[in-house]
Amino acid sequence: MGKLWLGNVSDIADGQAKGFDPNHSGSDTFFIVRQGNELFAYVDICPHYNDTSLPWKRHHYLDSASDYIVCAAHGALFEINNGDCVQGPCKGQKLSKIPLEVSSQQEIWISLTTIKEFNL
Amino acid sequence: MNIIGPDKLIFGVDDVAACKQFALDYGLVTKDEQNYVSLDGTGIEILHKDDASLPAPLPSGSMLRKTIYGVADQATVEAIAAELSKDREVKTLADGSIEALDDLGFVLGFQVTIRQTLDLPAETINAPGAAPQRGVNLTGVSKDFTAKPRSLSHVVYFVPDIEKAEAFYSERLGFVTTDRFTGTGPFMRPAGTLDHHTLFFLKTPPFMQGVEHFTFHMSGPTEVSQAGYALVEKGYQSFWGPGRHIFGSNWFWYFKSPFGCNIEYDADMDLHDDSWEAREALPGADNSQVFLLQSREKWAPGGPPGKP
């Protein structure tokens, strides 16, 4: 099964996030948050309207303390590790989590099946 | 009540530096360390969410902490104080303004307005059959551009009880409903302005109560578009627009922001007086705008050099 290389874990600083646009649509379609050596990836669509992206600027997905993922439209906060919305318009809903592969060399990969399945 | 419109919105934010940079990139001017203003002096104040001087936040955590209305004169401030004192605490602050909660829990301030009278031309257009608005040999646009928001236009609240909200602003503060979306909320203007709305409500569950967006008036649709495009070029992300609303007829372009709400540019809003009869329409995309455009990177037809 084909897969796409997204970079290395070290490309994303601890406590930071990065957006990706694998099909060069002009807007990022998913993002990865790094916490320590753990990575969490979500579709870049806020469940409030299910039609709009989260950040106010590219890669700006987190609050200043890197405790929560933030949607910049109405300030919704999401848990980083599970995507649950804990404050804001979509409270009780969640971000759509997507699977990644991290190799023993710390390379980040996403399968083409995942890209197709989540329309990334 | 001769309330003119919003003078200032006070925010308690998470990322102060990002919000201040946004304010500058949007086109507001630094008045002092935390105040950013438009051409007529109306604007926003940016403080950290834990700043002790801020009123308590709404339970929802909304970053909007206070809406300060400008009124015509001190007599109006006193009239509002007398009216609201009937059933709630009204504080008089050191600067002479008063502070009270509305019926939904939003913190309001009232002061003799700081809004200065502007004497500036609107964006001009020429059209067959009409006298030229722009004289011979005067060009309409330039790439040399700086956005200059003119005046704090309106604020939109998420509220759980639109009937209660409309009744408070109408019966206690003299706002007039100009139009409404059925079941969603009314557009309201205070007595001291003809602007279609300075306040709009969107009905939501209680946990969403807060601010949906705020905006400043620009000189016209070209400035809305050019200012928005400049924000996009700086890396800011569009939420909705550019387009033109139906109720109010104002051009719009909304951007996501670090203020926990969207921030809009608007221009060319309808004016109404007391003879206007409010319209009502179902909410939804078709009744929200006459058209919606979407920005893309500058492009022109033609191939690479040498291939016209």
What does this structure look like?
The complex is a heterodimer of chains A (120) and B (308). Chain A is mostly beta strands. Chain A has a single domain (3-117), classed as 3-layer Sandwich (Rieske Iron-sulfur Protein). Chain A is 5% helix and 32% strand. Chain A has 1 helix and 9 strands; from the N terminus they run βββββββββα. Chain A has one helix at 112-117, and strands at 3-8, 17-20, 30-35, 38-43, 68-70, 77-79, 85-87, 101-102, 107-111. Chain B is an alpha+beta fold and 308 residues long. Chain B has a single domain (3-116, 149-292), classed as 2,3-Dihydroxybiphenyl 1,2-Dioxygenase, domain 1. Chain B is 16% helix and 32% strand. In chain B, strand 3 and strand 4 (43-48) form a beta hairpin. Chain B is globular and about 75 Å long. Classes of the chains: A mainly beta (120), B alpha+beta (308). Chain A binds chain B through residues 26, 52-58, 60, 63-65, 70-75, 77, 87-89, 91, and chain B through 14-15, 18, 22, 60-63, 158, 204, 207-208, 210, 212, 235-237, 239, 255-262, 296-297.
Question: Could you tell me the number of beta strands of chain B?
Answer: 18
Main β-sheet of chain A: number of strands, strand sense, barrel status? 3 strands, antiparallel
The CATH architecture classification of chain B is Roll
Task: Enumerate the spans of chain B where pLDDT stays under 50 for 5 or more consecutive residues.
Answer: none
- Total number of strands of chain A: 9
Topology (elements, then pairings):
The complex is a heterodimer of chains A (120) and B (308).
Chain A: E1 3-8, E2 17-20, E3 30-35, E4 38-43, E5 68-70, E6 77-79, E7 85-87, E8 101-102, E9 107-111, H1 112-117
Chain B: E1 3-13, H1 16-26, E2 29-30, E3 35-37, E4 43-48, E5 64-71, H2 74-84, E6 91-92, E7 98-101, E8 107-112, E9 151-159, H3 162-172, E10 176-181, E11 185-189, E12 199-203, E13 210-217, H4 221-233, E14 238-244, E15 251-255, E16 262-267, E17 279-281, H5 285-288, E18 291-292
